[in-house]
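Can't paste images in this forum, so I'm doing it all in text. The chain is below; anyone willing to post the predicted structure tokens underneath?
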Amino acid sequence: MRASLARLLLDPDEAARDFYNRLFAADPDVRALFRNGLHAQGQKFIATLDVFAGDLSRFGALRASVRRLGVRHAEYGVRPEQYATVGEVLMETLEARLGPAFTPEVRNAWALTYALLAGEMLAGAPAPRE
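Text version of the structure:
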């Protein structure tokens, strides 16, 4: 039986706050994209990570939803290059929160998972206008 990421993080709300604090420090422009409170956003963030941590084989069924999320991100004003920042901050946060459990193998698995998700979100987003 797999352990959920939420349980591994011990305090998922604190982990989400840590992630967003790191993200806003890395790219202050991102803060403006979050018009509403971060609590619900943090819960969605952890739930999304938990889905992909547990069963990436379901990705085919989730692909359309992930692409629609990319469309929404583009509508909110997310720039394609910001996905790289999010990926870096995600790795930093997981490393800080998981400690010794964040082995090089775990890091590689998360990096590949995030690259897949970000790639699909970008594929779903309309091309930027010049």
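The mean pLDDT is 82. The chain has one domain: 5-124.
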